[in-house]
Specification:
With 245 residues, this protein is an alpha/beta fold. It is built from 9 helices and 8 strands. The chain has one domain (20-156, 163-196, 234-244): 3-Layer(aba) Sandwich (Rossmann fold), CATH 3.40.50.150.
Length: 245
């Protein structure tokens, strides 16, 4: 196993049993969905993970949902979740890269992407996903943004390395408008969403440290948790509700 494979193996060992793979909450998902002025019928969720947001979308709409992720473990968990709740007929899972989505133009009236657009770059996602939306379709995405221009050295160093394209909230919103969307609404994601992710992640690190004392991945994750806990007032996830202009 080479260095990269070892890193990813350790990384997945930390995350595989966690429910949340990024900040999120059912309350925030439901709030964002309530901002959509027209009930969706065909939802594409990009970067669905284990399907926590997917379940909320299904419970609060009558839409069929196509859920995309490139991690089969997550898709299997999502499928099982929907089977348990008797909603399998409304779900289709697709193992694919978000940069090469196998769908025709204007196939969906709502695209949902919580915490995933940064992987390919938000501006690239805005451009590539837009054709998949029907006329006056909607895009909801959350993204890590800076709240302030006054930033600690630790936070700047972390995010310059982990997410160099991270923007001020106002600048990200302007990019969305320039990309051909109307900004219908936006809001900072809740403290609940932050704690749903970083709380269990911190506990998992404590659990695994004795058996993974030399793991670079574990060390990197622990550093992110530390900085994100101490400097949460400087940055956080923001939800954007957009309409295809």
């Amino acid at each position: 196993m080479n260095e990269h494979d070892l890193y990813m193996n350790d990384f997945m060992k930390v995350y595989e049993t966690l429910e949340y793979w990024g900040p999120g909450s059912g309350t925030d998902t439901q709030k964002a969905l309530s901002c959509i002025p027209k009930a969706p019928t065909k939802i594409l969720e990009i970067g669905c993970g284990k399907g926590l947001a997917t379940k909320v979308l299904a419970e609060h709409s009558e839409a069929t949902i196509t859920a995309v992720d490139n991690e089969q473990l997550a898709l299997d968990r999502l499928t099982h979740r929907f089977e348990q709740h008797g909603m399998s007929e409304r779900l289709k899972t697709v193992n694919a890269s978000m940069t090469a989505l196998p769908f025709s133009n204007e196939s969906f009236d709502l695209i949902w992407a919580e915490g995933s657009a940064y992987i390919m770059g938000v501006e690239k996602a805005l451009a590539q996903w837009r054709p998949l939306l029907q006329k006056n379709g909607f895009l909801v995405l959350s993204d890590m943004v800076w709240w302030t221009n006054v930033r600690s050295k630790e936070a700047v160093e972390l995010w310059n390395n982990e997410y160099p394209d991270m923007q001020l909230m106002q600048d990200r919103a302007e990019q969305m408008i320039q990309a051909g969307y109307l900004l219908l609404d936006h809001f900072p994601m809740s403290e609940e969403a932050w704690l749903n992710y970083y709380g269990p992640l911190k506990e998992k690190i404590t659990e695994l440290e004795p058996e993974m004392p030399s793991s670079v991945a574990l060390k990197d994750i622990k550093h992110e948790v530390d900085v994100s806990t101490r400097f949460a007032h400087e940055f956080g996830y923001h939800m954007f509700i957009l309409e295809k202009a």
